[in-house]
Amino acid sequence: MGKASRDKRDIYYRKAKEEGWRARSAFKLLQIDEEFNIFEGVKRVVDLCAAPGSWSQVLSRKLYLPAKLSQDSRDDELPLIVAIDLQPMAPIEGVIQVQGDITNARTAEVVIRHFDGCKADLVVCDGAPDVTGLHDMDEFVQSQLILAGLTIVTHVLREGGKFIAKIFRGKDTSLLYCQVHEMLIRSSIFYDASYDLVTCLLFNHSLSYHAKACVLLKLFFPVVTFAKPKSSRNSSIEAFAVCENYSPPEGFNPKDLHRLLEKVGSPSGMDDIDCSSGWLEGPNKVYIPFLACGDLSGYDSDRSYPLPKVAEGTYQSLDPVQPPIAPPYKRALEMKKASNHGIKELEKLSLDS
């Protein structure tokens, strides 16, 4: 399928190349900001699973570059942006790149050092697995990314900060949140009540993986909203959890969440915990707002648009702004190319003989 064909089918793919974005996903963060004003007052921000860098580009253009071009700007007052990914990516002005694992506590320590001991105002995560088409499998892997993101958030995000994370919406997702005060009503001590409740939650097999991840988000953020940017296709199950006003429970230690997540998949060994989903029923079950972001009269991501007319007569499709430096599928492409080359050599030998 040629570039011109995709330019017609995906308006945001074409616009991303024309405006210099590395990926169409840049429009999703821009449209989330239009609705929630997430960049207001932000001086320190972390971009998790950043490669190829489109969200880091947005952060640079919306935060770093305006401050740098300001006449009264000082170097020590410029916004700090840290981008984390296992894969390397091309440099972006004003963005500090950390090639590391977001599930590793040392990565959080590196971020704090770049912030001179301070914590972030905003953490964003557009990470997603390579989808298989098996929704249960995709939902499980995505939920693990959310939990990994939440783990590092508890280390690097200041109280009152915001967290934006991609989610895959499963069945009845908006019904599966629980009010925080209902979770904590058993006790005012996190280690006794909330620890047991979260442990129970993680080992509750009657709840979907996504539901468990979402309830954990609600435990740490009083305000959680699902957002569907206009640039996200209707056919996609993706949405974004916009989590505001980070407020960890009293007495919470970030190491506790990491310790809990390490236990997932093994017996809990706690016979006195009620692991039924009854506490998510009745008055505890709530609807979570689901908002469409972006200009609703703007471009439709599921519609095909004609290519723009140009003076030369023929529209020239642009190449991607920045191809991946070292994509995980690079080795597979090399093997395929070598295999095809070998087949051609064999065909040539057979013809010569």
Question: What does this 3D model show about the protein?
Answer:
α1 crosses α2 (11-19), α5 (105-114) packs across α6 (135-156) and α6 packs parallel to α9 (209-220). Helix content is 39%, strand content 16%. The chain is α/β, with parallel strands linked by helices and 353 residues long. Strands 3-2-1-4-5-8-7-10 form an eight-stranded mixed β-sheet. A two-stranded antiparallel sheet has the order 6-9.
Please report the total strand number as a whole number.
10
Helix content: 25-40%
Number of alpha- plus pi-helical segments: 11
First CA to last CA: what distance?
A: 36 Å
Taking all Cα atoms into account, the compactness measure Rg is 23 Å
Keywords:
353 residues; alpha/beta; 10 strands
Quick summary:
The chain is 39% helix and 16% strand. The chain has 353 residues and is α/β, with parallel strands linked by helices. The radius of gyration is 23 Å and the shape is globular.
